[in-house]
């Protein structure tokens, strides 16, 4: 295979990956930032970096997981610089839960993806997503119980 053919296939794979994941990435960032314009900028920045790293991504064991981590890093960096009141409102799950659990909840509840759909976006298995959802539910129940126990009755 010639270098030109390999480059064309790689470019085609990147475009297909972007088409498959862009909408979910954008909506995920919208949920975390609460800002449509900012979400678009973050998603575009992640895809720009993904394109620059694409040969490495293709050599990775799990392309969707690599891309998801990259999007997560861009999103986290952006959320950290939001004004304090917007951070709490827009990103409360990520302040209460580990990232895998918060991400699973946002994709499953916020984007209405099935466990299999969320797994495809995150680059993991449906079983891992279901386990993260169960752990998130337990953690949130515990947080609620602790909060309620401190109330004067």
Model description:
This protein is an all-alpha fold and 153 residues long. It contains 8 helices and no strands. The protein has helices spanning 3-33, 36-59, 63-80, 84-90, 92-96, 99-110, 115-122, 126-149. The longest helix has 31 residues, at 3-33. The protein is globular. The mean pLDDT is 90.
Q: What's the quick description here?
A:
The chain is mostly helical and 153 residues long.
Q: Notable features of this structure?
A:
single chain, 153 residues, mainly alpha, 8 helices, 84% helix
Shape: globular
End-to-end distance, in Å? Answer: 74 Å
Global Rg = 18 Å
- Compressed to H and E, one letter per element, the order equals HHHHHHHH
Topology of this structure?
Layout (H helix, E strand, L loop, with lengths): L2 H31 L2 H24 L3 H18 L3 H7 L1 H5 L2 H12 L4 H8 L3 H24 L4
Helix pairs in contact: 1-2, 1-3, 2-3, 6-7, 6-8, 7-8
């Amino acid at each position: 295979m010639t270098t030109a053919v390999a480059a064309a296939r790689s470019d085609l794979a990147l475009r297909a990956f972007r088409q498959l994941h862009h909408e979910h990435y954008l909506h995920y960032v919208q949920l975390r930032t609460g800002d449509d314009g900012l979400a678009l900028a973050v998603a575009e920045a992640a895809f720009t970096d993904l394109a620059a790293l694409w040969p490495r991504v293709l050599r990775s064991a799990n392309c969707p997981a690599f891309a998801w981590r990259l999007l997560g890093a861009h999103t986290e960096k952006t959320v950290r610089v939001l004004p304090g009141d917007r951070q709490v409102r827009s990103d409360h799950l990520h302040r209460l839960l580990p990232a895998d659990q918060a991400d699973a909840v946002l994709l499953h509840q916020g984007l209405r993806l099935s466990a299999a759909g969320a797994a495809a976006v995150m680059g993991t298995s449906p079983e891992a997503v279901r386990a993260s959802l169960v752990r998130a539910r337990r953690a949130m129940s515990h947080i609620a119980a602790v909060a309620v126990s401190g109330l004067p009755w």
